[in-house]
Design brief:
Layout: H1 5-25, E1 30-33, H2 40-48, E2 53-56, H3 60-74, E3 78-82, H4 86-89, H5 92-101, E4 105-111, E5 135-141, H6 150-167, E6 170-176, H7 196-199, H8 220-226, E7 231-235, H9 243-253, E8 257-259, H10 272-275, H11 279-285, E9 290-294, H12 301-307, E10 314-319, E11 333-336, H13 339-353, H14 363-378, H15 384-390, E12 400-403, H16 407-415, E13 423-425, H17 435-446, E14 450-455, H18 456-461, E15 475-482, H19 499-504, H20 512-517, E16 521-523, H21 528-538, E17 543-550, H22 555-568
Parallel strand pairs: 1-2, 1-3, 3-4, 4-6, 5-6, 7-8, 7-9, 9-10, 10-11, 12-13, 12-14, 14-15, 15-17, 16-17
Helix pairs in contact: 1-2, 1-6, 3-5, 3-17, 9-13, 14-15, 15-16
Length: 573
């Protein structure tokens, strides 16, 4: 077999085409590509594969988060192609997030051939293992050669992708491509003979088969014990539409449902992060002996403190991922299962024997109502608290929500009632990077109107990714709460002397010209009525709109301290 320079470019291209076709057979439909020469074989292979939808971005960090958003919304693997060097390193933030929350990224990084590493060659870094434990699996793909059977290449893809089906997260293929990278095709029919059966069909080269596993098996004795106690149902980060099954279970048991902002809805016990600061309410909830929690990554600090406050007789935590989600170290049963299936099965079992403490925490509904009403009525002017208390009333259930990791998501948890809408967030590592790019990926996948809510520092961090919103064909509203820096630090015991210079880091910037640079509509309302109008108009108009809510630095912390003090000393029960 010939491995000469004349066939090298064609062989590079062939291996890339084989890889992408096998990834398509593993369910990859979207591929995200950044510009680069070393990645030419993969880029052209993607362009030549009609089964792939191509997304491009000039910023590799944003590209990784774009892929993350696509993977979140589709629940399918999404491929990412970048060139060699620091382009690869820029994927790490998105990879770290996917490693914690399970989105399936397929990283196809291009590399110099091994003889050009550590010798001073241009744009060459050590890419092997660069993502460390943040990826589920890594495979170093050698420079294409006819001395290696194409059957090895396909079976290697299958091995790694099977690991991803078992554990989720990102997988990394580091592909060494020697020059030339551009050239004419060659006849490889003899070389491809070992995979002729694969070429003639649509199946994967190697089929991995799991024995059937039930996601709804329940220990009946434990369940009978658990439902005869006072308990709490918690909905954390769950998939869209799963909250309905969780709510049905809570209703069947007669237990309170505490829904995180990521759960895609709310309950009659909303605002618990605030009313749990009232000792009478907290003691009422601490009468519970049992917890059933679906999904992790809870926003509420007060709920986290409650979960750590005592040993629970039963604490079941249900999530489809095989990851640890127990920062309080209190879980007594960690169940890996489909959330809806298990919730529905438990609801059926609840009907057969019934819970004896049905409605035991219904008195807290009034506390919730009073808490939310206080947040709504106390501040008739536009500020971050009043925005959080009212904003979700302006959104219908067909609007996708993307929540940033700023003060505003905590305010929504404290003061708002989330609508029954598909809700997404990056709450694995909870970074403020890549939020616009992730939201753009979610929106491209589901093609629904979107409301993205984030803070000013978060938007500054991902300003490049506003370019990804230039051509949206659905309404997209980006609400940015601009409090001139990191207002979250007003809620933390940081030293006053260094609060501004080392923590809040005020920037004095606004976003009107940034929106204009990317051709996006812009509004800066000054009242609640104007904010309502701007958001509603934006959600009714094709294209992207930036709605900037400007508030004085330090105001939100002051308002929250006032609210907390009032609720803490109020008679709520």
């Amino acid at each position: 077999m010939s491995n000469g320079v004349s066939t090298r470019a064609a062989l590079n291209q062939l291996w890339a085409e084989l890889m992408l076709e096998e990834l398509v057979r593993h369910g990859v439909k979207h591929i995200c590509i950044a510009p680069g020469s070393r990645s030419t074989p993969l880029t052209l292979a993607a362009a030549n594969n009609g089964k792939l939808t191509i997304h491009t971005h000039f910023d590799e960090r944003g590209l990784g988060f774009l892929a993350l958003g696509l993977a979140k919304a589709t629940a399918e693997p999404v491929a990412v192609v970048v060139t060699s060097g620091t382009a690869v390193a820029n994927l790490l933030p998105a990879v770290a997030e996917s490693g914690l929350t399970g989105e399936k990224l397929v990283l196809l990084t291009s590399d110099r051939p091994v003889e050009l590493i550590d010798c001073g060659a241009n744009q060459a870094i050590r890419q092997q293992g660069i993502f460390s434990s943040h990826v589920t699996a890594f495979e170093d793909i050698p420079s294409p050669t006819q001395d290696i059977s194409p059957a090895w290449l396909l079976s290697t893809i299958d091995k790694v992708m099977y690991q991803q089906t078992q554990r989720g997260g990102a997988v990394h293929f580091n592909c060494h491509y020697p020059e030339p990278l551009y050239g004419e095709g060659s006849d490889f029919s003899a070389y491809l003979q070992p995979i002729a059966h694969w070429q003639s069909g649509q199946a994967r080269f190697t089929q991995y088969i799991d024995a059937e596993r039930s996601g709804t098996a329940v220990d009946l004795e434990r369940w009978q014990q658990l439902q005869r106690t006072k308990g709490i149902v918690i909905a954390g980060r769950v998939a869209p539409d799963e909250l309905a099954a969780i709510g049905a279970l809570a209703n069947a048991l007669g237990w309170p449902l505490l829904a995180d902002p990521q759960a895609g809805g709310s309950s009659d016990w909303a605002g618990f992060d605030v009313w749990l600061q009232n000792d009478e309410c907290r003691q009422q909830l601490l009468q519970a002996d049992s917890i059933i929690q679906f999904g992790g990554r809870l926003v509420s600090k007060r709920l986290g403190q409650l979960l750590s406050a005592k040993p629970w007789s039963h604490y079941w935590l249900v999530d489809p991922l095989a990851v640890a989600l127990d920062p309080s170290f209190a879980v007594t049963a960690r169940i890996q299962a489909n959330v809806s299936c298990l919730a529905e099965r438990l609801t059926e079992l609840s009907g057969s024997s019934g819970a004896i403490y049905h409605g035991w925490a219904d008195c807290l509904k009034a506390a919730s109502s009073q808490c939310l009403a206080t947040a709504r009525d106390k501040y008739p002017v536009l500020n971050e608290v009043s925005l959080a208390a009212h904003m979700m009333d302006w959104v219908d259930r067909d609007t996708t929500l993307f929540l940033g990791n700023s003060l505003i998501v905590r305010l929504l948890d404290m003061c708002g009632r989330m609508p029954p809408a598909a809700t997404f967030a990056n709450r694995g590592a909870s970074g403020i990077d890549g939020l616009i790019a992730t939201a753009a990926g979610v929106q491209r996948a589901n093609q629904q109107p979107m409301l993205c809510v984030l803070g000013d520092t978060s938007l500054l961090y991902d300003l490049n990714s506003l370019a990804l919103l230039q051509a949206v064909n659905q309404p997209v509203v980006v609400v940015v709460t601009n409090n001139d820096g990191g207002a979250i630090f007003d809620l933390l015991p940081v030293p006053d002397a260094q609060k501004d210079s080392l923590y809040r880091m005020p920037h004095g910037l606004s976003f009107e010209h940034a929106a204009g640079m990317f051709g996006l509509a812009y509004a800066s309302p000054g009242t609640l009525a104007e904010a309502k109008l701007a958001i509603e108009q934006g959600l009714a108009t094709e294209g992207a709109t930036v709605v900037e809510i400007k508030t004085p630095a330090g105001e939100s912390g002051k308002l929250l301290r006032e609210l907390f003090g009032e609720i803490k000393h109020a008679t709520l029960l």
